[in-house]
UniProtKB/TrEMBL annotation:
Keyword match Disulfide bond: no
Highest taxon above the source species: Bacteria
Gene Ontology terms: cellular component: cytosolic small ribosomal subunit
GO-annotated biological processes: translation
Compositionally skewed regions (Basic and acidic residues) per UniProt: 578-589
Organism: Algoriphagus hitonicola
Location of region: Disordered: 543-589
Lineage: Bacteria, Pseudomonadati, Bacteroidota, Cytophagia, Cytophagales
Summary of the function given for this chain in its UniProt record: Binds mRNA; thus facilitating recognition of the initiation point. It is needed to translate mRNA with a short Shine-Dalgarno (SD) purine-rich sequence.
UniProt protein name: 30S ribosomal protein S1
Keyword Oxidoreductase: no
Amino acid sequence: MSNKEDFNWENFETKGFGEGYSKDQRDQMAAMYEGTLNEITEKEVIKGTVVGVNDKDVIINIGFKSDGLVPISEFRDLESIKPGDEVEVFIEEQENALGQLILSRKKAKIVKAWQDIESAFENDSVIEGLVKRRTKGGLIVDIYGVEAFLPGSQIDVKPIRDFDIYVGKKMEVKVVKINHANDNVVVSHKVLIEKDLEKQKAEILNNLEKGQVLEGVIKNMTNFGVFIDLGGVDGLLHITDISWGRINHPEEVLELDQKVQIVVLDFDEDKKRISLGMKQLTSHPWDSLASNLEVGSKVQGKIVNVADYGAFLELAPGVEGLIHVSEMSWSQHLRNPADFVKVGDEIEAVVLTLDKDDRKMSLGIKQLTEDPWTKGDMSTKYAVGTKHKGVVRNLTNFGLFLELEEGIDGLVHVSDLSWTKKIKHPSEFVKVGDELEVAVLELDVDNRRLALGHKQLEENPWDTFETVFPIGSDHKCTVVSKNDKGAVLELPYGLEGFATSKNLEKADGSQVEVGESLDFKVMEFSKDDKRIVLSHTATFREDVKPAAAAKKPAKKKEESSESTPAEKSTLGDLDALAELKEKMEGGKK
């Protein structure tokens, strides 16, 4: 009993949890407990252990006095999450209003991703990303959960035309730029390739020599040729070195990204400009021409070009012959080659010249038909006096050329166009393309000459004019024009006459002017020269007389008709003396 009385109930009974310890004991125990907890800081990433998983949250212990909750939706990228797994989380708040520790795995991934990106940028390390989608000017690549921009120019060393082929695929890249203000990251795949190509490029350039055969990929196409990537080194394959045949654009025979075999033709000292060839890898088609091909052989081919001077006929790729425009038709009048052939025509021709050493040949197509000048009926068909119709092909100062049929041209002299009109240039009478009727005046088959006349279709009216305009007869004439020597007169029947200046004096002493219509007397008529000389003065002055009416000196019997010019000059002298005598008599008066 005494033992019960000795028991200290105050020490045994406690009023609350931990009150059985002294202050020192409690402090000691608290220090021991806090020693088992981690010192944590908000806004940092820390590793934690999963201690529980329910439908909504994942419970994570980070060694803090309380566990944190993370929405299970932030673990979708993991196939499964279970207690004991270690994960990195971001501490948003140590304790919210409910006293809970707030963690985020999503933010932890972002922070960690940026740390890894900065580390990759600083260390120039290669990282693997997933191409998510294409965008304007390039691709979007996922690296560590951050969307980075891969410009189109940084995808490859060669131009990329289809970005879609990379979407959904993994790609190694390097970080080339970080913009923290916009959370923007730029990456490049090209820099990885360039480094690999540097050694290859140096090796190619060191071993480069003329005649070397290489393999390359067509990188770019232009209308003058293609650029070929030889493995970090670009070379130009000119359009003329692609094929022995004629091509208008490289795309006719080549494609972008196509692998091709080429040969090095030339390069500069710095090896910055490399000329390549493709056709040189095959023998020249001229070397495989048929041995029996010779002048006079008939060949068949396709027109590949038409120029002003002729057309080129391709017998085989790389083998062409020129058909000069003069060899397209027997006509002496040269026309445009396009009148005969066009590009793409498949025609037959005859070999005119052949030089296999210089790889040149000339061809003709008119030789496939008979030369019209050598036809047997030529002499009878175009005999002198026969009448024909033709087309005016050309005009010259002295006449015009008339095409009677293909290959048969004739000349119509300007003097043979009209009996009555004095034509200075044939353009006053006809124009090119007009149809004209003619008669054959002269035929020279050997020299291929044909003289034609238009006026000869009618009788010579000057035979009739000789009786209409006899010397001494008067006619009403109109002055058409005047010059220092005299005036041109318009006579009846469309004829022209001439009056010298001294024969234009009127009765009142004035001169006849252009446009006046007066009586004129025929002073001279020449049927052969088609010339009529007249005088107005002679119509009122008796001393001015026609040549045939003037007083002639006695003609000796032995004198021949050749003295006529002397007689005419004598008559002229008499006219001058008569005028002088009249003036002298007037002076005496």
